[in-house]
Structures are given as structure tokens and as C-alpha cells.
Amino acid sequence: MASAFAQAPESEERPTSDEVIARSGVPASAVAAVVNDSVVTTFDVRQRMKMMVISSGGKLPQEAFPQLQAQALRDLIEERLKLQETRKYELQVTDEEINDELNMMAAQSGLTLKQMIEMLEGTGVSIKSLREQIRAQIAWPQLVQGRYRDRVRVSEDEIENTLERMREDASKEQYLVSEICIPVDNPSQAQQYYQGSMQLIEQMRRGVPFSVVAQQFSACTTAAVGGDLGWVRSGELSEELDAAIRDLPPGSVTNPIPSEGAFMILAVRDKRQATEKGEPTFTLAYAAADESLGNNAARAALDKIKSAELCSGRSLRIDLGKGVGYSLLENVTLDQIDERFRPHIEDLSRDEQSPVIKADNAYHSAYVCDKDEGLGLPSREALENRIYSRQLARIAQQYLRDVERDAMVDVRMKSLLQSNG
Questions:
Q1: Is position 396 within any domain?
Q2: By three-state DSSP, how is residue 264 classified?
């Protein structure tokens, strides 16, 4: 992998679709789509549809097959575009990485890799098709992160504003939510994407589980776990999604909701009462200076806690000096703190430091790295990661749109349903 993601030189002038097909040796009747210099065959589409049916446990009704075929072809086109783009930047996925993913998939199904391969081949699915799918799933996020991670900035204000909304809404219900994301690649075709989203809802009304539809059709990162978002609090989702789930009873599914360049379908699986405020917990950067240093030197050393990296759990960036010890105390309650220090800590907020306290032949001080007010809110780090992932996912979606806009994509396939039946 090129460490700087340097783009490889451009190739010769792009061939036409017919030239690509002629070079491939694939009969024109067996071509489902041409993606730049690559051919997606009708065999590839059948393979993907079989994998989708297997992963759904065979629960997809026949009426769902037109949508299944369209999604299979769409996924294959996107995978080709992703792999072609990663090749431009000389990004390689090793066989070992793919094997690790295959072994994990097999273990999750209670099978050995050999057993899983035999099971797939017994249903007519080539392991080669699955390996290519996994290759794209590994390569694309690596490319997106390598190129764009420095552009994603989660500000302290953004984290604090989200936490503040969650604090304000802590007195309200919480929701166990699943999601399906249908990206709107072309805004002028929004109505078609909406109708496609409604077809997915119709499948669920006919008994197809939400998790199965999410696994097969959702573009969210949660697709791998059936769309499961877990428990969310009011205010945690964007305003339009938050408003949509508030009045839904458990077991209900929303209509498609336009949100951030996609149609979102949300399922409320359960609700629970608001978290009752409990005992606050602190994560403290604690330091102590030996009394022999003297009052002024000890206080000067303890003042450096603010500029050190103790909250991250790493070694201090600044040496506090000889005779000064430090530690990171995580998730401690007030009753776990020495009673002589409690009054100086209990009212502190994040990024505040206690006064210097003299006790037991030493000078002591504590800096609040984080504080949970007892509402069970996620840590700042967890919330930052969540916001970061969503921002990077939006960039990845836009990146793929740009790649497709500059590509030659020629869809030739009409229908495989008669031969698939």
C-alpha cells in the first residue's frame, strides 16, 4: 500500500463498452453491466443474489426478487468502482486479510471455514465471488480513511452540544432503534429512490424481517448487524429522525425520511423509561508531590497536570519532576475518593482542577478528565468516535458518487428472474 496514497499514472484512452466486452471474451448476452474496463456478468449477479438469499435464511418472498436483482447488480457495480479506485492508489488487500474475515464469518455461523465453503458451494455459490466482495469491503474504508480522515474534525463544541441535548432529554424515553439507509445518488431521481424504499417497507409488511432487509439493502455501516443502532436517547439522532421515532409504538417502522443525502427507514423495537439520575462518576488525573519539595515547587509541579497527557492514559508529555507521582483514576464515585478530598472534587466539571491540598506529608491535586453526571451518558470519546464515523461515512458516500459520475457505467441486463426462479 502506498503510504501517501499516491495516485498511479492514468492509463490509455478509455475504451467503449463494446470494446470492453470484446476484450473480455464474455458473450454479449451474458453481460449485465460494463464498469469502465471491467465486465459484470449475469453469472456474477446470480451469485450475489444466491448469497443474499442464503444470508436471509431463505426468508425472501418471490415478490422481493426484482428488488433483490436490482440491488445485487447495484452492489456489484459499486464494488467494481471501489476496487478500481483503490487500484489507482495502489492500495492492496492481502489474502491473509480476506482469510481472516472469512474465518470470522464462519465462526459466527458456528462453522469451520472448510464447512462454510462446502455449504456455499453446495448451494452453487463460488467462494471466489465472496472473496471479491470482502476485498471491496476491506479496501474501500481503508482508502477513504487514508485520503479523508484528516478532513474530519469533531469539535469540542459539537461533542458538548450533543451531550447537552442528551442531558436535556434524559428525562424522556429511550428507544431501541434499527436503521436502513438508501443513499440518493442523484437528487433528480429522489422519487425513484423513495419508491424503492417504499418497496422495502412493503416487503417487511409481508413478513420479511427488518434485519434481513437491512443486511441486504442498507448502505449504513450497521447493515452488517441487521441495522441495529442500539439504545438511543432523544436528541442523539438528527432532528428529522428524532422527531419521527418519538411517537412510534414499539414494533413500528417509519416511512422513508429524507436525511443527509439519503432516505432513512427506522424501526423502533422497544422503548424504556428515562434513566434515573444516579451517582456521578469521575475520571481523574491525580498527582502528588512530596512535601520535601517545598510549597512553591510542589504547586508549580502540580500546575503542569493541565498541560500533560495523563487523561489519555499515555506517558506525560511534560515531566512533572522528581518526587512527583501521578496516576489515572477511571470511573470513581465520590465514596471511593478520600473524604478529605471529596469537597474539593464533587462540584468540579470536566477540564477543571482541584486546589492543591496538603495531607500525609504530600501535596495533592486532581484534574477532571471526564464526568458522568449519573445519567448513563456515553463517554466523550465514544461520542466523538460515533460522530466521526458518521461524518466519514457521508464523505465516503459523496466520494463514491464522484467516482461513479466520472466512470463509464453501461447497464445491459434486463431481467434474470425467469432463469433464477
A1: no
A2: strand
**In this structure, which long-range contacts are made by residues 120-129, counting pairs with CB atoms below 8 Å and at least 24 apart in sequence?**
120/51, 120/54, 123/50, 123/54, 124/47, 124/50, 125/47, 125/50, 125/51, 125/54, 126/47, 127/102, 129/44, 129/47, 129/48, 129/51
pLDDT of residue 32: 95
> Is the CB of residue 238 less than 8 Å from the CB of residue 229?
no
Among 254, 276, 298, identify where a domain stops.
276
SS3 state of residue 257: strand
Q: Which of the residue ranges 130-134, 220-224, 256-260 would you say has the lowest mean pLDDT?
A: 220-224
Its domain, for residue 67, covers 17-151
Are 138 and 64 in a shared domain? yes
pLDDT the model gives residue 163: 79
Pick from 16-25, 107-116, 405-414: least confident = 107-116
Q: What ranges in 109-209 are assigned the alpha helix state H?
A: 113-122, 127-148, 156-168, 190-205
- Strands (E) across 3-131 are located at 31-35, 38-41
96's grid cell: 491473509
In the chain, how many domains are there?
3
Cell digits for 267? Answer: 424501526
Considering the domain architecture, whether residues 292 and 235 belong to the same structural domain is answered as: no
Q: Report CA 128 to chain centroid distance, whole Å.
A: 26
Nearby residues of 360 by Cβ (< 8 Å), 6 or more positions away = none
pLDDT at 283 over 90: no
Residues 32 and 108 in one domain: yes
- Domain end: 212, 241, 276, which one? 276
Distant-in-sequence, close-in-space partners of 115: CB < 8 Å, separation ≥ 6: 106
Domain-located, residue 414: no
- Mean pLDDT rounded to a whole number for the chain: 83
Global pTM value: 0.60
Say yes or no: 146 and 26 in one domain.
yes
Kindly report the CATH number assigned to the domain that includes residue 331.
3.10.50
- 377, part of any domain: no
Strands in 38-41's sheet, in edge-to-edge order, are 38-41, 31-35, 409-411
Residue 231, domain CATH = 3.10.50.40
Any domain includes 123: yes
At 199 the pLDDT is: 85
HSE toward the beta carbon, residue 341, CA cutoff 13 A: 25
Residue range 158-209, pLDDT digits in tens: 888 887 877 776 666 788 899 999 888 778 888 888 988 898 888 888 777 8
The answer to whether residue 317 scores a pLDDT higher than 70 is no
375 neighbors 281 (Cβ within 8 angstroms):
no
